[in-house]
Design goal:
Blueprint (H helix, E strand, L loop, with lengths): L1 H46 L45 E7 L4 E6 L13 E2 L12 E5 L21 E6 L2 E14 L14 E7 L6 E14 L1
Parallel strand pairs: 4-7
Antiparallel strand pairs: 1-2, 1-5, 3-4, 5-6, 6-8, 7-8
Length: 226
């Protein structure tokens, strides 16, 4: 009888040690994943310094610089309708952002273009990857407020589940909002999203706030030729 009791005790202890080991292992895995996500977000923080849009309430606040008057880009239709711009300037757009819910359709430029600035266009932020890349993150910023270039002024009307399209290199990419959050306006932004998927990120000033920015996180739903 004594041996039987000892056997049961030994079995219970062994089982307990196994459970403890599994718990510790899961804890390390969870900690590692949290640190990985945190580090990636912090890396993004350093990419956005001096790149983020400020709240603009008047066109007089915009920098004075002559816009382009023509272009030679035949890869995309540059006569893009949008709900805010009254400029007649033509740009060498490489792609188009469309958000049907707020009647927004606006082109974006090569990130190296001198007009890839929020004072002229929806702006591709440094650190972006274009939609044709695997697990891409296209990050676009624009002004909110009352001005000709406040292209993201109506983003506040969007909700989780709403759709956006990006047209790039004859492919139509469909994205769905999975998260919306606010961050302090301090010249940097942390992007929190699932980096195992292709995504679209839109950034603008938060409505009725001088101190915050709103980040809209999209994930790729599907793509098709057009």
């Amino acid at each position: 009888m004594l041996k039987k009791i000892n056997f049961k005790t030994s079995t219970i202890l062994s089982f307990g040690l196994i459970l403890i080991a599994i718990g510790v292992l899961l804890g390390f895995i969870e900690y590692f994943m949290e640190k990985k996500d945190f580090v990636f977000s912090q890396m993004n923080l350093s990419l956005f310094e001096n790149e983020m849009p400020e709240l603009i309430n008047s066109d007089e606040q915009l920098e004075k610089e002559e816009p382009p008057i023509d272009n030679n880009d035949s890869t995309i239709d540059n006569t893009i309708e949008n709900n805010n711009s009254s400029s007649d300037a033509n740009y060498d757009y490489i792609g188009i952002l469309e958000i049907p819910k707020i009647n927004l359709k606006r082109g974006f430029l090569n990130i190296k273009s001198r007009y890839n600035k929020v004072n002229y266009n929806v702006t591709v932020i440094q650190g972006s990857t274009l939609p044709n890349k695997e697990k891409s993150t296209l990050i676009l910023a624009a002004h909110s407020g009352i001005c000709k270039v406040c292209y993201f002024n109506d983003l506040y009307k969007l909700n989780v589940g709403d759709i956006a399209y990006v047209y790039y290199e004859n492919i139509k990419y469909k994205y769905k909002i999975v998260d919306i959050y606010e961050v302090e306006k301090d010249g940097t932004v942390a992007i929190y999203r699932d980096y195992t998927k292709s995504g679209l990120v839109l950034i603008t000033c938060t409505r009725n706030s001088n101190t915050k920015q709103t980040v809209y996180i999209y994930e790729l739903e599907n793509k098709e030729s057009y």
